[in-house]
Amino acid sequence: MEMKKLTLLLALLAAALSISCSDAAIRTQLTRADAGRGLTRHQLLRRMARRSKARAARLLSATGSSSPATASAVPGMNQPLDTEYVVSFAIGTPPQPVQATLDTGSDLIWTQCQPCPSCFDQTLPYYDPSLSSTSAVLPCNSSACQQLPISSCGAHSLGTNTCVYTYSYGDKSITNGLLDADTFTFHGDAAVPGLSFGCGLFNNGVYSANTTGTGIAGFGRGALSLPSQLKVDNFSYCFTDITSSTPSPVLLGLPANLYGGATAAVQTTSLIQSSDNPTFYYLSLKSITVGSTRLAVPESAFALANNGSGGTIIDSGTSVSLLPPLVYGQLHDAFVSQVKLPVTSDEPLCFAVSSAAAGKKQEVPKLVLQFEGATLDLPRENYVYEMEQGGQSSMCIAVMSSGGDMSIIGNYQQQNLHVLYDLAGNKLSFVPADCDKV
Ligand SMILES: *[C@@H]1O[C@H](CO)[C@@H](O)[C@H](O)[C@H]1NC(C)=O
Ligand SMILES: *[C@@H]1O[C@H](CO)[C@@H](O)[C@H](O)[C@H]1NC(C)=O
Ligand SMILES: *[C@@H]1O[C@H](CO)[C@@H](O)[C@H](O)[C@H]1NC(C)=O
Ligand SMILES: *[C@@H]1O[C@H](CO)[C@@H](O)[C@H](O)[C@H]1NC(C)=O
User: Fold this and answer.
1) Ligand 2 probe mutation, 210, 211, 214, most atoms within 8 A of CB
2) Domains by residue range for the chain, with CATH
3) CA of 415 to the centre of ligand 3 (A)
4) Which residue among 230, 254, 421 is best mutated to probe the pocket of ligand 3, counting the most ligand atoms within 8 A of its Cβ?
5) Across all residues in the chain, what is the average pLDDT?
6) Catalytic (active-site) positions
7) Peptide bond before 249: cis, by omega within 30 degrees of 0?
8) Which pTM was predicted?
9) Which residues neighbour 136 within 8 Å (Cβ) at sequence distance 6 or greater?
């Protein structure tokens, strides 16, 4: 009895200590970049496909595994790249709202910043550091500045010791400005002082004009990302349906109850780190099955090579999943041989649906991704979409070729899943969920 009490007391004490010296616990909301812009479902899906391609070019060139020719051969590359899920928070004292794309494929947090000599249009006012009593420009010998892949000591009205950053993406998008620190305020008034972020003065490339987004929130594994700076052990998100306007939750350093409600078992697989590309969350994908066909590709087609090329990452900033061309070819052929409908396009793969059958859900083989220790058995709505164009109904498969040797699990395939990144334990877990109830 006494012993039990003591144990309980110690446990409570430990819990209290770990709460008091910890680390932010934050719950906030995501909205889709296209939400509320009056786009039809067809327009939404078109934009999504385009963005995924642009994104692939960017990620592949970040790993050096794509030739420039591959990147420039991607169709629609000059189109806006605004990825899907935007996280809302505020910077400064008093707080100024920003909305940044949640991006597990990069680290830097940045937002467009006054005086903004070269910025794209955004719906919110530009963040203005001169209106914040807690804003600070970081010196170039600060540890945050040293973490940047490219930085310099700039001459600035605030002194010559100013950290000037340049952060570029493989699709030639670039943000350039000063590395600042300020207080961030999240949904529910959780305020965290002294977070480093890019005050983006020159932002050029395939960012979207008049988007709800004002920048990018890097959620990668590097030191400058939001989870790293908040020193959380884990984060999780649950993307509501891509065409719904219901906000999605994102939790940082909070107990994510993956076991509540859902009857399906929680699936867990290892997160793999690469010193060549320390930002990315690599997974060990073993095989892909389309209906009765297991694609005849060796595991090495999905694996991270010793030289840092290849591999499979999970990425919140890509919408449609992307596979190496050879694997995509096999997936294409497996669907074609099992779906008894005429093919209208090879990438994305679409089938004609007769007008008599339009509106009815066509039979489609199951798509299953087998990871080390975990199975992602995709529900139909996570890889099939129907559309109407010029009086023709089609049914399409939301997977495309990456044009390189990398595989990317995009957010289309993560809809209605609660996905937990356990950074302390190097594990990724997911479970089907009603995201508006998480
Ligand atoms: C940065 O440089 C300044 C002077 O140039 C110096 O006073 C300061 O201690 C340095 N800070 C760090 C973190 O090295
Ligand atoms: C953005 O919106 C503003 C105001 O509605 C408009 O003047 C501007 O042309 C738009 N820019 C683009 C690129 O659509
Ligand atoms: C996530 O981290 C928080 C804070 O460290 C912890 O309380 C919680 O149990 C973790 N959740 C999971 C699912 O690991
Ligand atoms: C990296 O390794 C892979 C597989 O071993 C090989 O196919 C590729 O050519 C290598 N790439 C470079 C740039 O050395």
Assistant:
1) 210
2) 2-33+83-232 (2.40.70.10), 267-437 (2.40.70.10)
3) 22
4) 254
5) 81
6) 103, 315
7) no
8) 0.83
9) 180, 181, 182
Instruction: Confirm or reject: Cβ of 420 under 6 Å from ligand 3.
Output: yes
Q: How far apart are CA 29 and CA 86, in angstroms?
A: 8
Tokens, residue 12? 């409570």
pLDDT for residue 235 is more than 60? yes
Question: pLDDT digits over 311-362, tens only?
Answer: 999 998 787 899 999 999 999 999 999 999 999 999 889 999 988 877 788 8
Enumerate residues 6+ apart whose C-beta is below 8 A from 42.
387, 388, 389
Give CA–CA dist 33/211, Å, rounded: 7
pLDDT per residue as tens digits for the range 279-289: 999 999 999 99
- Residue nearest ligand 3's atom 12 by CA: 255
Kindly report, residue by residue over 160-213, the tens digit of the pLDDT.
Answer: 789 999 997 655 678 999 999 999 999 877 899 999 999 999 988 755 555 667
CB 129 within 8 A of CB 114: yes
* Position with higher pLDDT, 76 vs 286: 286
Q: Which residues line ligand 1 (CB under 6 A)?
A: 139, 141, 161
Average pLDDT over residues 151-163: 77
Q: What is the pLDDT of residues 3-17, one digit of tens each?
A: 444 433 333 333 333
Our mutation pick for probing the ligand 1 site, out of 137, 138, 141, counting the most ligand atoms within 8 A of Cβ, is 141
Instruction: Give the separation between CA 245 and CA 274, rounded to whole angstroms.
Output: 36
From atom 9 of ligand 4, which residue's Cα is the shortest distance away?
309
142 CA: nearest ligand 1 atom:
13
**Is any ligand 2 atom within 6 A of the Cβ of residue 209?**
yes
Say which ligand is closest to the CA of 122: 2
